[in-house]
């Protein structure tokens, strides 16, 4: 096995999986999905379908103890808090949907898994707009750079962390994924985790705008086509 | 709460807890113990006793899914592999007891936990001899430096990773802990995880030599006083 892709089932990780497959061969890639108690655990089924569609050699799902991230004030984890509607706010600092040091944990688990499989690379799909205004501090180039060093040194130079979307906008990622044949119709992004995507939370708005910027339709169904703006 | 100490129940983390308590007040410190499937899970009971003895405000134990680190070739995890007797070998590279990227995982979990408690510091007890010859690449100053950056940036400057034993030998740590009144009699180090410490694995030999270098007796019982060299 050559590579492990952190595969959430969203757009960014799906495009990462397509990049990894084109680089190493799809039968040399393992998709790793991690359930950490998020509301939108529906992503996990999407991740499995995407791994199957792309022909990844392995799909593995790991469930973490709920207590790791619960009750830390993240609206992504605690059903008592509402997921905010509308785009990400302009103020500087973590979004209400920031899950405490989630990506440090996900990358560390992926590193252990890569060592077990003998895979020399991990792909992680953080992108430029995640980092904007420090909405997700654990998506910034500064964080990712530090983790790249930690992974490389802490594995005795056996595993390298690769973040091919680090400097791309969501619209750039849609364009790239479209070129690579990423199965966008199988992805799930909405934070709400209902039957259909809400079309109103920050992550729905972000993907809708990114498809539109490319002159494309978002192929997934939304709760209301009017609200989704997809008609 | 001011600080979280990763408390394995061994000597290093016990001395770290004593340092954290002297710095912040023992009632401002939480001890975090993580069970990751290690053979010597007996350490966990030791950790709890140490937290009680020191008067830490909180003792929390988290059990990770076994699959995270199993079957990755570490003799610390897989009962099919033997724990080697004798001191750490002289060759350069990871010891057979290296658990894949374990410390990246432990530090990441502690960071999430610190954010939840509102604690601004994490103490982690890696020491200079862990790093020697890259026996544990995830104990080296290079790894710890990278993780310090990752933790600081990835928490939006809310949590700082502190490693007060990074440049100390085991003998230095015994001397320091002795001065601070660390309860060495409650600690557990042996990798074998039997009723009494084996006195022959690398970690037993290391602590026995370190007590001896300080003109002290190791207060824990060994399987054979002759083998343990403690008489």
Task: Please give a structural write-up.
The structure is a homodimer of 231-residue chains. With 231 residues, chain A is of the alpha/beta class. Chain A has one domain (3-188): 3-Layer(aba) Sandwich (Rossmann fold), CATH 3.40.50.620. Chain A is 38% helix and 10% strand. Chain A has a five-stranded parallel beta sheet, with helices on both faces. In chain A, helix 2 (43-54) links the parallel strand 2 and strand 3. Chain A is globular, with a radius of gyration of 17 Å. The interface between A and B is large, with 43 and 43 residues.
Provide a concise account of the structure shown:
2 copies of one chain form a homodimer. With 231 residues, chain A is an alpha/beta fold. Chain A has 8 helices and 5 strands; from the N terminus they run E-H-E-H-E-H-E-H-H-E-H-H-H.
